[in-house]
Structures are given as C-alpha cells and as structure tokens.
Amino acid sequence: MTSSPGSDSGIGRSGRLKSALKIAFGVLSVLFVAAYPLTVWLGLSRLSVRHVAAILLAFLIPGAAVRIWKHRSQAKQLLGLSLSAVFLIGLAMAFNDERFMRAYPVIVSAVMLAQFAWTLKSPPPMVERFARMQTNDLNAAEITYCRSVTVIWSLFFSLNGAACAVLALFGPRSAWALYTGLISYVLMGLLFAGEFVVRKYRFRHHPPQNALDRLAARIFPCRTPPADSVQQSNALSDSPEGNP
C-alpha cells in the first residue's frame, strides 16, 4: 500500500513545522537566559513585579519544555533548573517581591558549580571531558592541567554566585542588572580567553582544528622539531661519518 503525494507533502510540512518550532523555542530559551537581567530591569522600570513575573513565566515554561524534550538525556538537570526558575518567579508573583526574580542567576551559577565540582569527585573532570571530545591523546601533564582548570571554573562559579546573591538581596536593581547581564559574561569571556592562551602556550603539539587554533599555532609554533629535521638527524646518525 502506497501513500498518496498529498499525504507525503502533508507529513513533510508537519515535520518542517515541528523543526521550525523547535528552533524557534530553542532560540527563545537562549535569549531568555541571556536577556533575563535586562528584561527584569526594564520590566520593573515600567510594570509591577506581578506583571513582569507573569511575562517571564509565559516565556520560560514553553522554552523549558522544548529544551527538556530536545535533551532528554539531561532531562533531570534541565528540569531541576527550570523548576527552580518557575518556583522563584512564582514566589515573586505571590509575595510581590522582586528579590526572588533576582535570585535566578544565583541558581544558574549554583547549577554550574555543582556540575563542575561533582566531576572533581567523580572523574574525569569536566574540562577533561570537553578536551576528550576533540582528542583522546592527552598526556599526564594535560590531564593534570584539565583538573586544575576545572577547579578554577568551580571557584569562578562560586564567587560569581556569591556576587549575584549579594546584589540580589542588597544591591540596587541597576547594579544587579549590570553585573548579571554584562560584567559576569565579560569575566567569563576573559577566563575563557585566558585559559585558551595558556593552553595553547603550554601544549603545542595538537593539530589545529579551527581558525582560532590555526591563529594560536602561528603565535605559539609547535616545539617539536619538523619531521624532515628528525629524518635528517636519523640519517646522519646512521651514516658511517656520523658513527664514532
């Protein structure tokens, strides 16, 4: 039994619609997290706490559902973070207190801290897991380095969470929005960039995999001698003139 062209085109349109909806909700969820502080700051400047909370929930719940459906293997972690956000925003709506909404970046930092710190007790560390996505050729020094970087990121998330908590409880709204919406991302980017430079300076033998790797290879050339020079030295050692 064969399906008609009309039914096939209908299935195709349905599949494209589902794919478009997944992409749209995925983009909205990313924008929600990135623009959350600015959204709260602008919203509270014009609307009441309850109105802003209702708007946030209208974006958060569908986006969280799509993320959990797309990443079912990480459903427990995503569900925990999403429920925490819904709970905090719900408390803000119930008690008409914006500090509950301000606490969301604290939850995000706490989740990231838990993920990185847990891998220090249950190896391999998080950074080593990322490194092994690119190559399994890691020596002892690189494994130790990955653990040290995981510790640094754990410290960053703990300090960042503490700063977000202090600003959420005691800081002015503008200072909270500035730090959580801009400064914390700048600090994260600086840490990423600094770690990248240190890694490329210390470990130069891995082949470049992207444009940044190729740029780093130009700045920090490989310390190992070229294959031609190795062959020439081997030939000299094997020749009669090279033997004592």
Uncertain stretches: 225-237, 239-244
Average of per-residue pLDDT values: 80
Order of helices and strands: HHHHHHHHHH
- Helices, by number, come to 10
Give the fraction of residues assigned to helices. over 70%
- From the structure provided, what is the oligomeric state, counting identical versus distinct chains? single chain
Whole-angstrom Rg = 25 Å
Q: Which structural class best describes the helix and strand composition?
A: mainly alpha
Number of strands: 0
Head-to-tail CA distance between termini: 84 Å
Topology:
Elements: H1 5-46, H2 49-70, H3 75-95, H4 98-102, H5 104-121, H6 126-132, H7 140-170, H8 173-202, H9 211-219, H10 227-238
Helix pairs in contact: 1-2, 1-8, 2-3, 3-5, 5-7, 6-7, 7-8
Question: What does this entry look like structurally?
Answer:
With 244 residues, this protein is mainly alpha-helical. Helices cover 81% and strands 0% of the residues. It has helices spanning 5-46, 49-70, 75-95, 98-102, 104-121, 126-132, 140-170, 173-202, 211-219, 227-238. Helix 3 (75-95) runs antiparallel to helix 5 (104-121) and helix 7 runs antiparallel to helix 8 (173-202).
Short summary:
This protein is an all-alpha fold and 244 residues long. Helices cover 81% and strands 0% of the residues. It folds into 2 domains: 9-99, no CATH class; 103-223, no CATH class.
Record keyword descriptors for this entry.
disordered C terminus; globular; 10 helices; 244 residues; mainly alpha
